[in-house]
């Protein structure tokens, strides 16, 4: 099994796949999608995680997130929401140590109870009751 960090998978746009790009970042559909049209936004410069991005790279990634979101909505009108997230560090679940931001389309009924959304990274914390 190939180590995606040696050489870095995301440093090779051709190997990762290209859905769109701008000067500082590119988008690629996820090889192991959480949902159909799950996309990754990846800075072209090799940086470990989101916290190492320059301000210009954050802006470039954000522009691609918004552009890809619109593209996904045109491709699939059943998409009614999105989760956006990034893993920073091994203990947070990062396995490819080149920053990448997940844009995950969500559809009505794709899970029984979507409450808590990204909180499900710690399953027992996903569902909660609001305090009065």
TrEMBL record:
Which Gene Ontology MF annotations are present?
A: hydrolase activity
Cite the InterPro entries for this sequence.
AP-4-A_phosphorylase (IPR052908), Histidine_triad_HIT (IPR001310), HIT-like (IPR011146), HIT-like_sf (IPR036265)
Its domain of life? Bacteria
- UniProt entry tagged with the keyword Mitochondrion: no
Q: Which Pfam families match?
A: HIT (PF01230)
Residue ranges occupied by any HIT domain in the UniProt entry:
6-113
Q: What is this protein called?
A: Diadenosine tetraphosphate (Ap4A) HIT family hydrolase
